[in-house]
Amino acid sequence: MQDASEPVINMPALPMNSVNEQHDRHEDLPEVGTTSVTKIINDSDNEDDENGMDLGRVASESLEGDAVVSIDINTEDSSLSPAKQENEKSPEGIEQKYQEEDLKDDKKSNETIATPVPDAASRASLEKQKSGLTNLEKSTHVVLIKCIEQLIQIKVCMKNEKMKNLMEQLKPLLQTECQFDKFLIVELFQYCFESSQDEVMNISLDTISKLASFAYFSSKDKTPASFGPPKSLLQCMVDMVCDSINDEVVDGNLQLNVVKALSAFILCSEQDSMLHGAILLNSVRKLFNVFLLGDSDTIQSVAQASLTQAVTVVYERLRASHTQSNSTSALPEEDASVTENWVHDEDEPDKKITLHSMASAGTSSLDHVKVDADDPAVTSVENSSIQDAFLVFRSMCRLAVRQTSPDKVSNIRSQAMRAKLISLHLIYRILEKNSDLFMDPTLQFRGIPALKGMTLVHASRQYICLVLSRNAVSPVPQVFEVCCDIFYLMVFSLRAHFKQEIEVFFREVYFPMLDLKNTSYNQKLHTLLIIQRICLNPRALVELYINYDCDRSSTTNVFEQLLFSISKVTTNGPSETISEDIEEILPSLESSERSSTPFLNTNSASLKSEVVQLTTFSDFQLKLKTLQCVLDILQSLSNWAESGLYLSRRGVSTDEQGFVGDYDALSRSDTPVTNPYYNGKQSFEANSHSSSSIALADPSQFESNKQRKKLLRTCINKFNYKPTRGLKMLSENEYVDINDPKAIAEFLFRADGIDKTTLGDYLGEGDEKSISVMHEFIDCLSFINLKFVDALRRLLQCFRLPGEAQKIDRIMLKFSERYMKENPSAFANADTAYILAYSIILLNTDLHSPRIKNKMTKEDFIKNNRGINDGADLDEDYLGFVYDDILKNEIAMKDDQELAAIAPLMNNFSTSSGFTTFTSNGRDLQRVACIQASEEMANKATSVLKKLLYQQKHGSQKTNVYYNATHFEHIGPMLEATWMPILAALSNPLQNSDYVNELNMCLDGFQLVVRIACLFDLDLIRDAFIKTLTNFTNLHSTSEIKLRNTMVIKTLLRIASTEGNNLKDSWKDILTIISQLERVQLIGVGVDETEVPDVINARVRRKNVNIGSSNSIRHVSGSTSRSTRTRSLSKPLSPEAVSELMSTEVVLSIDRIFTQTSSLSGSAIVSFFKALCEVSWDEITSSSDLEQPRLYSLQKLVEISYYNMQRIRVEWSSIWNVLGRFFNMVGSDENRHVAVFALDSLRQLSMHFLEIEELSLFSFQKEFLKPFEYVMASDTVVEVKELVLQCVKQMIQAKISKIKSGWKTLFGVFTFAAKARSEILISMTFDTLVNLFSEHYDTLMQQNCLIDMLISFTELCKNGTNQKISLQSLEIIREVYSSLSTMIKEGLSSKPSVNETFSKYVFPVLFAYYDIIMSAEDLEVRSRALQNLFYIFLEESDDFTEETWEVVSRKFIFPIFSIFGPEADEATVMLRDEEIRTWQSTTLVEALRSLVTLLTRRFDKLHNLLKGYLWLFSNCICRDNITLSRIGTNCMQQLLSGNAYRFEVKDWNLVADMFIELFKETTPHQLLLLETFSNGQGAPVYSENENTQLSHKRGGSLPETSRSISTSSISPEKQMEFRSMIRKCILQLLLISIVAELLDNEEVFNHIPHEHVLKITVAIYDSWQFARKFNEDKSLRITLLNVGFMKQLPNLLRQETASALLYITLLFRLLKTRDPLGKTETDQKIHKLLFPVCAEMLDMYASLVVEKHTRNHAAWQPVIATILDSILNLPLELFSENIHTLYFSCCSMIAKENLDDQLRELLKNYFNRVGHILLNLNAQQE
Hints:
Layout: H1 55-64, H2 82-87, H3 91-112, H4 120-125, H5 135-152, H6 155-159, H7 161-175, H8 183-194, H9 198-213, H10 233-243, H11 252-267, H12 277-293, H13 297-326, H14 381-400, H15 406-410, H16 415-439, H17 456-471, H18 477-492, H19 499-515, H20 521-535, H21 538-549, H22 558-571, H23 582-585, H24 616-649, H25 654-660, E1 677-678, E2 681-682, H26 686-695, H27 699-721, H28 723-732, H29 741-750, H30 756-763, H31 768-779, H32 788-796, H33 805-822, H34 830-848, H35 858-864, H36 876-888, H37 894-901, H38 903-906, H39 925-954, E3 961-962, H40 971-992, H41 996-1015, H42 1019-1031, H43 1043-1058, H44 1067-1084, H45 1095-1103, H46 1119-1128, H47 1135-1141, H48 1144-1155, H49 1162-1182, H50 1192-1203, H51 1209-1227, H52 1232-1251, H53 1260-1264, H54 1266-1273, H55 1278-1295, H56 1303-1314, H57 1319-1335, H58 1337-1342, H59 1346-1358, H60 1363-1386, H61 1394-1415, H62 1419-1435, H63 1442-1456, H64 1466-1471, H65 1473-1481, H66 1483-1497, H67 1499-1502, H68 1506-1517, H69 1522-1539, H70 1545-1561, H71 1586-1591, H72 1600-1603, H73 1612-1640, H74 1642-1647, H75 1650-1672, H76 1674-1683, H77 1693-1713, ...
Antiparallel strand pairs: 1-2, 1-3
Helix pairs in contact: 1-13, 3-13, 5-7, 5-9, 7-8, 8-10, 9-11, 10-12, 11-12, 11-13, 12-13, 12-14, 13-14, 13-16, 14-16, 14-17, 16-17, 16-18, 17-39, 18-20, 19-22, 19-39, 20-24, 21-24, 22-24, 22-40, 24-40, 24-41, 27-28, 29-31, 31-33, 33-34, 34-36, 35-36, 40-41, 40-42, 41-42, 41-43, 43-44, 43-48, ...
């Protein structure tokens, strides 16, 4: 029994037209059939009527779980199955059972009264008999007669005269079957109810229920005027039944009969007898009250079942009427006037949305709209049905949101809580069974103007939100659970209409439920259950992502946050061992979808009052449930992706996938793919909106939005850290114009995530820009008609006031200005507002700061604010009101208040986690605090929803578009956004747990993540998850391998088998694990661990080899290695681990991985080979110190090569790029065993490759044979190289006909072998090459192997190890050329071009000879090669064209002398000094001589190359080697003298230019620069006797003191520079001698033009002037001596005299050969160049003092003698013309002491001739 003190919940009789406004779309769900709840008790004449089955007994038996035996209508089975018995324990089960019993009892009743009761359709078709009554009417008369007879037997009825008379009047009428007024029956029942006798009322109610089932009372029949206000008989009877019992405790049978009667009225299917509007609500209200106040649990259960049945019938009628009207009616147009009319705070239109906005909603203006009774649409069946459905739903919502006092909340069995629960359950049932009706856009209100065009979901939207916001955070488990179910329906079926609301509930309710520490176990568990059901829906997950995470207007990334919240539960789980059996936990973790409504009677077992305490066991349950959620998410994503890929492969476009998905189990389409949605309203303008929807339907557009949203978050975070940088970043990314303060202010005002403290500091800054932004920011607020304190509160909610007084001052100044602008009459001026605002801020700090002990009083506050209103005082009452307001309600940020409110849920109250068990003894403070925190969360949720709906009402319709999921491409970005929390959730159990089921869940999750990552090429994610798995294998520490590690290994093997095509670089980790696994298997069978080193640890050691940590370094050999291995054996491998790792499953899995490589794609097999090569190399290097290294992976590498032998050439080319490099390394490995195995494997593979015809094409043979060449070129041991040659020889012998492109590589092997220093290798190579030349020459020529063969023989010639083989190889090259010559001559008939013949046949042989000449180690070989080369040039070059000779000269002849060219590296020349000397003395001499012979013989064709050859000779002449210079001189002279007659003018011009250039390049001009020889400080070094030295005249010697002076240190650079100058001086002398000798040759002098001789003479004159200038600079020469470059005083006397002598000799010779009296320009030029210089030389010689310049005197004497002799030999005319130039110079010679006799004789002759000439002249004159 219920406590009588508890208030009865009376549901008000709401008007029929009371409705709400919302509009949304529908979604099809299966229809639910109608079942009967009430059992109609027949009162036939037999005794069974009185002893019939009672409703209460049936319900009671059903509630207690007893099996109720019923007879099926078809009498096929009289027993109930266990499943059916279980179903009858629920209200739905009772409904079904009652329906069966109703049918059975109706059948009995009809048989008793012999008048069958037809159904509605039959009754409508019956024809009245002529007697005037139908069979149905006769049946009703029987029931009425029975009732009257029972009433007559009751004394109370007979005492009532009116009632007695009425019964006596009615009975005959009923018996005679005459027509009568039905109001008489109503009047009879009225008398019965007025009697207040239970017996009478029970009979009446029983009769009424039967009449109602016969549709006896109609809404068309009206009561007479005398009865009161006119109303229908149907309403009159329903009111009587409802009023028959009150809210006090009454007889249980009477309550049951009332329930039965009301159920009969509600279930009546006749159109005129259906209940609508207020009548229906009145009936439902009475059923609701009976459920609450029922006399027993049985009555409450029956009332609950009847109430459920009534609600179900209302919606079934709506479905039926809509289905019927849909066939004839068209889709109505949406009424644009439909808007939402919640009561909003109009003063805060822009306030941030919080969760408090829903529950604080007031009444809707649509609750009192009037129905237009004249509109025919109002009276239609469909319109009546939709109104009934809405009214019932709204009533349930209103009952569900009623506030409940805390003491009632603690009593779950109280009327208030039971009323809330039944309401919530009915709401859930309505939404679950009829969601398609709610969303059907064709089902709209039509008869009510205010509701016209609305759908059910539109009208009910605010009520659904209100219900959830008020109850979603309830601490009562039952309430929270059903709210979770309702929210799931919102997400599952209605998410397109509740886009923003879903985000709010996730953000404000369900995410905090998982994140906060102290939410109860029940709340966390049911939240996870609902999330799990959402996770099972792939489309819902994808739509959550694209509509929230990819929506730039959404503040919450729902999908991403969902994974983060789930992962927190997983990672925060218990670490201690669970004592309970894990198998007991698993059944409780199933996803519980609500299948039936539980009984909610007072003593129901489903009403438990306690909240389950969180324990280690329950924490573990939550952890498992969280893992299951993660697994379901991954499975859904995988299914969606695979389904989309499957459809795309079938050619189905992405736009069609949403429709095809309806037939695909993997992508179930629970969201209809129709039109886009805006603000929850479907757009009927399909054409206008489809374009924008399609534009954003591209996955790349969603990802662009996602990235843009992420970038905005980054910018805001940057602003929160550094405002100026954040604004700059926002401007750079075009979020805001940094030059527009208004734009910045609006962005800061509306953007989410802005740190309010940072914002306050920025707005308070004193710079001009910040002040402008602050002004615009405050202007965004509206203070119209707001109280001053409220306006200040609104301002300070936008940002946190900075602490600096100047910043506060600036903000308050602007605030006061803004407030007074919008409220000009508030104060006298803005100064008043400014001072008061500042005063209020100080007051708020004073009153609420815990640091201030002496608080400000009201009087102090009033006193402080006197005279601020323009000199006047503000009203004291007003200031007192302000003081009280601040005292009671602190000005604080709402965020701080909300955080403080939910603090009990964030912090642990005690050491135990979660809630403590609520006890009945006293008030639990923890429980109260948590309830208050939950209430605060609910308030926040309702506030958010309120503001959300306000924004939807006043915002743009197209700002909130809901997109359906149609693309599988979203899955990749979804995983990218959430892989980190997924990894955290899945990794934690692998580290700590030993439970198989939990581990299996985690490993399944890993597999799914890798699968998705592989599908979308997410390399980072794939590698991260696979590396995580490899870390959990523990194969690097065999003693620690446990069951979970073996499970991880098996998972990795499964991943390798299933995802091989997409693993890419992750193959390395998997194959490393396989290698480690093979190592563990060997250890398990008894192999010493030291013989199988650990690959992973070895790799770590190599990586950390430079780190000095002893823990990370292990030496490869020595005692350290042995001791380390010994320690690793301290803990042997467990037998269980060995058994698992050596199981058949593992072995077959490994084999399957390798055998399945043949089915991998082209790119995947390359990745596999690459990874296996790396692992194999790790094995080899880790065991390099062992005699038998690990070759497991190398063996597998060869094995899979055989598996994949049938792949096409393109794929093998890619594979061999990897495999070839690997064989290069292993083939040249230091360990002989490794190299031998690799080479033998390579030989076998090569044999197979050669057999494949396709691989012989192009260059693949060359590639797969490359490792042989690489090994031969490496520094490996000779034995390995011998093996290479043997392998190559075997392949040639066995497969020579198959070798095509591989010849190039094979000859490469021979080439590198020919370079070896081993005579064995050289001998093997020579024998093989000779055999190929002699036996297979034609084959090699066909394969174009001439060049390769010549290169091999060339290398043998160059190798000086075996001279005999070198000379034999050289002879073979000669034979090759001979055969080529014969072939060329025989092929002349085809007339190939000379250039083609040369390049194809001759050029390779010439290059071979050239290479031998330049590089051969043996001089004999060089000489013979040179002879052979020039033999070809001299004897076999008749067909060479000038172009051919040009090529030969530039490619072969000139490079022979290039080592001495200016481009040669001096250091190289110095290092090869010995070789050069040998070369110069042998080969080069012979080459130069042969070259002269060649030029002489082939001068006609080489004429154009003369310049190059002259350069070649000059280059040899200019070397510092005297021998080479002389040879060059001789060759030059021989060339010029022997071919002078062939030279043309241009050729002589080249010769002259050559000599001029040589003189110029070899002149050391730097020698004349004094700073060149400075001591490093910019000043030359002089001796202390410098003045004395400088006073000496030309040619004087230095005193001894100067030689004893210490010299400065000379740098190597200075020394090298001076040596270079000395070499140039020597070259000058050599050039002078060359020119002299060359021009002494009469053949040359006669053919060289005189103009070119003059050019050479000018160069010689410059050389003379340079030497003269140096010799005259005494100070420079002394400097050179002091610095230390020379041991004696340097001079250039030889150069000076030699050049002077050559100069005058050439000029006198030119004069001699020309006309003495010639007047040509050349003659005049010779005269000018000769005679003045002669006079100058004579004067210089005359000035020399013999005693001081003895050396100079002697050197110049031949020059002077030559001058005088040549003058004397001049013709008379020329002699006479130049007497005036030379006479005085000769006179000065007479005065010279110790003059040589020769010179004296020459002077004598000169003066004699002069005298004769002068005397003859005088004589002639006389």
